[in-house]
Please model this.
Amino acid sequence: MKNFALTISSPIPHSALPGDRLSILDAFSEPAVLLAPDYRIIAANQTYGRSYGDGLTLQQRFCYEVSHHYTLPCDQAGETCPLKNASLSNMPQRVLHVHHTPNGEEHVDVEVTPIHDAGGQVQFFLERMRVSRLASPLPKAGGLVGRSSGFIKALELVQRVASSESTVLLLGESGTGKELIAQAVHEASVRRDGPFVPVDCSGLTETLFESELFGHEKGAFTGALSQKIGLVEAARGGTLFLDEVGEIPLTLQVKLLRLLESATYRRVGGIEPQKADFRLVCATHRDLRQAVEEGSFRRDLYYRINAFPIMLPALRERIEDLPLLIESLLQRVASGRRLRLSEAALAVLSRYDFPGNIRELRNILERAALLCDGRTILPEHLPDECRRSQGSVQAAAGMPSEILPLEDMERRYLLWALARFHGDKRSLSERLGISERTLYRKLQGARYK
Model:
C-alpha cells in the first residue's frame, strides 16, 4: 500500500461524514474506513461493507468488534494495534492481522493513517485493508499456514519485501519451511510470471559449481557433448533461490560474489559475457555472522546477500500453530482419508520439541497415517521419541519468552480471555474458576494498568 496523507481544514461533525467523506472513501478500491480515536467507525466505503458487513449497521461500532470479533482493542488482546501506534507516533502504521471476512478468517495487511485538522491535531484515522494471499490462517492442503505471532511477524516481513527487488536472506533451523517462504516471496513479486529456480548449494561440488550455475559450451571439457543452460540462465526473468548458501565452499564464494556484483557471467568454455536477470533469495540454517568471524564465509558476500534478513521461527516457538499444521499436513500426506488426531495424541505432540521442525512433523504424520487403520491417530501410532519426550514446558503452556511478574501475566491473560470469550461475565467467571465479583474487580484493575 502507498502512504496516503490527508489534512482536514476544520473539525468534521459525525453527521456530515456519510455524504462527502464517504464518497472520498469510495475512491479506494480496497476496504477503507474512517475511525474515531476511540476505535468507533465513523464511515466506511462500499468495499468495506461487502467485506465486513454482517447485515448490521457499521457506523458507531468498534473496528476490533467488526474485523476481529473482539470485545477489546486488539492491543489488549495480545496483538499490535496500528491505530494505537499511529496515535502514539503521529505517523502511518502498517501491520498484518487475522480478520474475519466473507471467506472466513484471512491474513489482512492493515494500514492506518492519522488525519489532522488545521491545527495539526489528530482528529480521525483512515484505515485501509488488503487481503494477503501469502498464507492462510486456516487449514489448507497446500502452501503456507499459520496464525501464531512468530509466524505472522515473519509473514509481515515477506509481505513488505516481496514487491521489491531486494535480496532476501531467510534464516532459521532446518525444516522451518524456508523454500515455501522463498516461493511466497516469488509469487508476490513482479517476477511471479517468471521461473522459480531452487538450487541446493550443499550438493554443489567445486567441479560442478560453475557448470551447474553458469552452464557450459559444447566441448568445454570431457563429456560436454552439447551446450548446457545453467541455473542462472534458467532463472532469467524470475527468482533464483540459493538454499543453504552457507555451505558454498570459500573458494567458490568469490564467483558467486562476482555474479551478484556485475550481474554477468560466462558459460564454462565460453567467451561472450551473458547478462543475468533474476531476483535473489538465499536461505541458510548456519549463523553466517559467526562464519564470517571464523573465516569460512566471505564478509563482502555476507553483506551482499544480507540486505533483508527474515528469521523463521522454529516449530517449538509457534507451538500454538500445531493443530493447524497437523490438519493441513494430514490433507497432504493422507488425501481423502479425513484423518484426525486424538486429544491424547495431540497432547503428546504438544510436549515434543521437534528438532526437525515442520519437516519432522510431516514425517511423523506420514508414518502415523500408515500405521492407523481407522480415522483417528492415537499415541501408539506416534514414534517412541515423541512419547518419551517431556518437551518444553514453556512451549506446551504457551509461556512468554521472558520472566514476567505474576500480576502482569494475570492481567494479560484476563484481557486475552475477555476479548475471545463471547458469553456473559458470569459464564466467563465460571470458566475461570472465580466468582463474578472477583472477575469484575480483576478486570477493572487490568483495564487501567
The longest strand covers residues 104-116. The first helix runs from residue 17 to 25. The two ends are 34 Å apart (CA to CA). The CA atoms of residues 411 and 442 lie 8 Å apart.
